[in-house]
Structures are given as C-alpha cells and as structure tokens.
Amino acid sequence: MTGVPYNAPMYIIAIGWLWVVLMMAITESNVVAGILTFTFYGLFPCALLMWLLGTPARRRRRAADAASGTSTDTEGNDGSGGA
User: Fold this and answer.
1) Distances in Å between the alpha carbon of 51 and those of 11, 16, 24?
2) Are the beta carbons of 27 and 38 closer than 8 angstroms?
3) How many angstroms separate the CA atoms of 63 and 38, rounded?
4) Is residue 22 situated within a structural domain?
C-alpha cells in the first residue's frame, strides 16, 4: 500500500486539536492543572474520536481478512476437528 492514507485529514485534525490543547495546558497556573487540561481536553477526547472514526476502516479490514481467509481455506478445514 503506497501513497497517502485515505483518512489523512483525520490525523491532521487530531494533531491540530492536540496542538491547541497543548497551548491551553501551557498557560495553566500550575503543572497539575496543565497535565489535567491536556489529558481531559486533549488526549481522552482525541483518542475517543480516533477510535470512533476508525471503526468503519476496522470493519472493512476485518471483512476483507475474513473473505480472504475463507477463499484460501479450501482444504476442507470446516472446524469439525475429526479425521
């Protein structure tokens, strides 16, 4: 697989959001507040968004793996386990 991934804009948006939240965290009054700001405004929401938006790609990949697995499994391995 070559070229730019089809979901490259999703990564650009995530990087931009993390940059903005990092700048917010830097301006906090103390280190603990900055870490909490970055974690709860940046990392958790961004991770959740990336996971949710990546679900269709994971489903397509799983379906492709299942389809290729069944098409190459022609030796009669039906899971019965018997001889």
Assistant:
1) 12, 17, 24
2) no
3) 36
4) yes
The number of folded domains in the chain is 1
Whole-number Cα distances in Å, 17 to 8, 44, 48: 14, 12, 13
Total-model pTM: 0.63
Q: How many of the other CB atoms lie within 10 Å of CB of 18? A: 16
Range of the domain at 57: 8-62
- Alpha carbon separation from 34 to 11, 14, 26, 37 (Å, rounded): 23, 19, 6, 5
Token pair 């940046």 in the structure block, residue: 42
Q: What percent of the chain has pLDDT over 70?
A: 75
The type of residue at 23 is M
Q: Which two tokens stand for residue 80?
A: 């019965």
